[in-house]
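[STRUCTURE TOKENS]
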Amino acid sequence: MGGQTEDLLRRLAYNEESSARAVLTLAPGRSNSEVAGLTPKLTALVRLAALIALDAPTPSLCWAAEQAACAGASVGEIVGVLVTVAPEVGLSRVVSAAPRVALAIGYETGVEPDDWGLRRE
């Protein structure tokens, strides 16, 4: 692990205030992904995964999926994020996110918004 990377992890582990502020705040003209060394596409896919895990609202998921597509992610990669995080986030999050991710990429699931994750037989 590089010296700067190791130092950042150490400072974050100790909840060092300036380091925490630096990773939670976007500096003008610089993104966290640039600091982390991630490509814009990978950053957008990671952001989508985080929003799925948080059960973020539909507009946030749509925005993240659109950002991923604009960064060069394919529809398969966007759906792949949902599949990849499924074991960690659980079935309820996947069921909740699937129709909303589908909406974001222009697919129709046939599930009405009021039914998202609330189907009762």
Q: What stands out?
A: The chain is about 65% helix and 0% strand. The radius of gyration is 17 Å.
